[in-house]
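2024-03-11 09:14:02 INFO receiving multi-entity request
2024-03-11 09:14:02 INFO entity count = two
2024-03-11 09:14:03 INFO echoing inputs for audit
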Amino acid sequence: MSKLVQVENVYKSFGDVNAVNGVSVAIEEGQFYSLLGPSGCGKTTLLRLIAGFEQPTSGQIFIDNSSMEGIEPNFRPTNMVFQNYAIFPHLNVEENVAYGLRSKRDPSLNQNKLVDEALELVGLSGFNKRSSNALSGGQKQRVALARALILKPKVLLLDEPLSALDKKLREQMQSELRHLQRAVGITFILVTHDQEEALTMSDTVAVMFDGKVAQEASPKELYEFPTSKEVASFIGEMNFVNGNVVENKSFTVRSEIFGEIAIDKSRVFGNASNKIILGIRPEKISIIRKPSRSKAFISATIIDVSYFGETTCYKVSCGSNETLTISSQNSVDQINYSLGDKIYLKADTNNIMAFSN
Amino acid sequence: MGRSSKFLKIFAITYLIFLYAPALLLPIFSFNSSQIIAFPLSGFTTGWFEALLYQETLHEALRNSLIVATSSSIFATILGTLASRSTSRYQFPGKQVSLTFILAPLVLPEIIVGVSLLIVLIQLGLPLNLWSVVLGHTLLIMPFSILIMNSAFNNLDISLEEASLDLGETQFGTFRRVILPLVYPGIMASLLLGFTLSLDEFIIAFFLTGTETTLPVYIWSLFRFPKQLPTTMALGTILIIVSLILLSLSEYFRRRAAKTQNTVL
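2024-03-11 09:21:47 INFO inference complete, emitting structure
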């Protein structure tokens, strides 16, 4: 597969602020690619650089092997779905969708047919003459999609397109967007601050912090093998515990909670010095009522209970001042613990990761 | 609560009476058959209005006023639109200062503006004619135009322009297909308000007019002839009605501008 979008060592500064600070990514054709990060991490700026609304301070962007330097947005093979949809309020649905076709001024195009097809694609058949002011948020979203897809761009850019929708609709649109992307086969680049959204929709996710890409990986890899403490805490929940390396060869780490454990080299990230940080996901720790004969258990006291429906989250205190968060599936035979209960924990030590401090 | 709301009601009504009662005298006396402007009224006539039809100098003044009002409202709206677009969309050094200077005629006494313009024109050796009045009125109307257009442009979501460019349209095409239709009500409001302001303006026109007078200057000159007073009243009545219509239209467009743009999201 060829790399459709190549971002090479791109910097962008606004005055003293470096919004994008040396980013290089290569996006394959037909991918659903997400730029994920907290607000202000430069993900939207990167998207706007690809769209052509901003010019890089330095670095190059290639789309389909041609340099985008100095090329205006109206001449780029990209189309964008804006965060607030940017539906033209003075035009109806049909005129909005056909806007880009009219810009082409190509009389051979059968505009009506293309508009009908585009509306059908996004599930808005028959909405042609509807006033754009009479649309709900979800419908505006679909019009914005149809308006962009009708031009058959090489890359569709989506700037936090679902953030204005309520939870139910957002989840529905997530799966629809995914299906739409598979159906049309166009490369999608999505900007989002919602890690769940990025994980469920994308083939590849680039996590950005402070204008830099911290990690670029598949959703599963990102969750299972985060390469830094920052990524680990941004993607999902993670318990962090201080530890000391006691033996380098087998990478044995001593910590107050887990005692002495050997950590697999594939789960050691960063330059490991003597002092390191161990990480374990809340669902990789299980609660046991009575300690078994095996030694690997941790005694703890429940200090907080949050009920989420399918799971319950316990905050427990173990030992002097260490606390852990544990996520427990509420399956049929699950025992419900309450505040102050003394319990024992068993950590899946194979899933403990080590990060440099 | 009841007491204070009652007080406010009386206050509002009194205010309106003081504001509009003098203006109401004009139509009353313009239909009064006596030449003397005093109560009691002597009888009903439309004669003063008919007399307007035969005053050639009046027609000329009206024609002059229309030329001045039309030209200056168009010039001021074009300049105001450009100024407002640049200050609402772009950052440049001296932006606030230049905006303040452009808006200054709002607070400067008209007589000062009139006198200083007169001095400048004479020093430059330019003749005083309708175009010097147009110049003065453009200066006067521009702040209003800028304020109206500012609200139109500030309500305009920048992502609409970006969306248009993104969809393959050129800068000019974007202006024509997106920006203009969305700020069009603002432009209409600015034109109508500017026209009304110019039509009624006296001081600057008085200083800068040459031999061709505008309507307000002509009306002022009529006061030297007491016999003409009732016809002046009739003329005043017509002017009030025209101004009210223009202002209502302007307000209608201004509100429509706010409405179309506030429903963007």
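2024-03-11 09:21:48 INFO post-check: The mean pLDDT of chain A is 87.
2024-03-11 09:21:48 INFO post-check: Chain A is about 25% helix and 35% strand.
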